[in-house]
Amino acid sequence: MPRAVERSQSRRDSWLFALCMVLSGVALFAPPRVGAAVAGALRRTALAPFVWLQERAAEGRTSRARYRAMERARDSLAEVARDVPLLAAENTELRQLLGLGRRLGQGFVAAEVLRQTQPTDGRTLLLDAGADRGIRPFDPVIAPAGLIGVVRDVDRHTSIVMTWAHPEFRVSAVTAAGSVAGLVGPTATGEAGRTALEFRAVTYRDTVALGTMLVTSGLGGVYPRGVPVGTVLGVEREQTGWERTYRVRPAASPSAVGHVLILHAAGRPLEATTFLPEVPPRVADSAA
User: Fold this and answer.
1) Backbone phi, then psi, for 114, in 5-degree steps?
2) Across-strand partners of 238?
3) HSE-up (13 A, CA, CB side) for residue 11
4) Where in the chain does DSSP place strands (E)?
């Protein structure tokens, strides 16, 4: 009985092999239209599960590719959105600097603030203008808001600025009306990030009101007269019968500027309107 079953299976395998050979010959020599019809029938019947798996795999690859593309687009948009406020602030600063340069007319060099000269020194700045552009020590450095400091050291292509926060900084100042004169220097708090200014050597009989603007006096031949230094916030300390020292809010912050103007020399006094912000054209037209 087992031998009969084996012979039956052997004959069946032979017939199947012969049938496959015949079908192969027919498929090989049949017209293309018949081959396409047979292939379509196989895909719809016996090969349908494999076709379905292939479609799912293709969809999975496409979905992953789209997801990665969306991630890249999202990251790009996030980076652009993060840079927009910085670009807007820099654009505003450059417009203000151009307006200040136009009002000054001549006698200055525009420079970019590269970085602090030392990572731990927040009282000096490094500029990209040096001796090759005519920069010399003791040239005043200003921003649209007011005084930044003075050039301390000059290299061929760079220069180091001693800002008003430096312990050695001093400038002769006067009230905007010119009634009270004194000396402005940094407070001795020690921490650069919290350094403010003081209006010193003011005689006891002179009183400076809260909110008074202080400008450079022009004495000493370093700073031109009229550069804003700061605003009086109140009395810091006093010596009865001798002098008062006033606390001053600086007009310009060295840590917030990216571009400055270097004045070649003290030169002529500056007009009171030199540091006033320009009115945008639309606002001016509306006011007119």
Assistant:
1) -80, -55
2) 244
3) 5
4) 108-115, 124-127, 140-143, 146-154, 159-163, 171-175, 181-186, 197-203, 213-216, 228-239, 243-250, 259-263
> Beta strands 159-163 and 197-203: pairing type?
unpaired
Structure tokens at 206: 């002179």
Give pLDDT tens digits for 103-147. Answer: 777 788 889 888 765 554 668 899 989 999 999 999 999 988 889
Sign, Cα dihedral of 12, 13, 14, 20: positive
CB 135 within 8 A of CB 153: no
Number of residues that make up the chain: 288
pLDDT band at 94; cut points 50, 70, 90: low
Q: Which residue is associated with the tokens 């001016």?
A: 284
Residue 253 tokens read as 């912050």
Give the bridge partners for 244, in sequence order. Answer: 202, 238
Joined tokens for residue 57: 């795999």
Tokens for 215? 């400008």
User: Distance between CA 251 and CA 274 in Å, rounded?
Assistant: 14
Give me the percent of the chain exceeding a pLDDT of 70.
Answer: 74
Q: Is 118 helix (H, G, I), strand (E, B) or coil?
A: strand
127 close to 161: Cβ distance less than 8 angstroms = yes
Q: How far apart are CA 192 and CA 90, in angstroms?
A: 24
